[in-house]
Backbone:
């Protein structure tokens, strides 16, 4: 019988991608780093196909974006005992089917992994450092956060990320 000692390192990796990334490769690499996790949750957000959207552009303010994402990872790790956390977010112009964001959370127990990924995504969607606009046949238009996104965020209480 083989027994493996798996210390909790809770290493977070936070990246801002300025070009496309391969979600399957990112997920496989993350999973390989966490063999002792009882649960690994991944969330992949992508540009929707349909609805007349031809492209999506995310702009960011460099001095705040990566530090803000790192602070989000730190807060997530203080709230749940995760073994690992990956927050990967695109910036730039993307097209239908392109990956926008990937959040992976590994924990000894599935509920911690689910909660950590959910928390991180709610904050990225509503309280992040990105400005979003979409291109349709009528041209470019800015997109504001939806009421539903703010309501999702409110269930976590005040985390003072900004």
Residues:
């Amino acid at each position: 019988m083989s027994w493996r000692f798996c210390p909790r390192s809770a290493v977070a990796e936070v990246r801002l991608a300025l070009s496309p990334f391969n979600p399957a490769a990112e997920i496989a690499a993350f999973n390989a780093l966490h063999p002792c996790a009882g649960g690994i949750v991944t969330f992949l957000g992508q540009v929707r196909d349909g609805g007349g959207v031809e492209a999506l552009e995310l702009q960011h303010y460099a001095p705040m974006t990566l530090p803000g994402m790192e602070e989000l990872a730190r807060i997530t790790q203080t709230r749940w005992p995760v073994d690992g956390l990956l927050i990967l977010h695109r910036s730039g112009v993307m097209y239908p089917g392109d990956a926008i964001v990937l959040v992976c959370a590994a924990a000894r127990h599935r509920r911690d992994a689910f909660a950590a990924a959910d928390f991180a995504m709610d904050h990225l969607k509503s309280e992040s450092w990105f400005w979003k606009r979409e291109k349709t046949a009528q041209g470019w238009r800015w997109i504001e956060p939806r009421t539903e996104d703010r309501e999702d965020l409110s269930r976590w209480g005040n985390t003072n990320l900004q």
Notes: Helices lie at 23-33, 62-79, 110-126, 147-154. The mean pLDDT is 89. The beta strands are 11-17, 39-46, 55-60, 82-90, 92-94, 99-107, 130-136, 139-143. The longest helix spans residues 62-79.
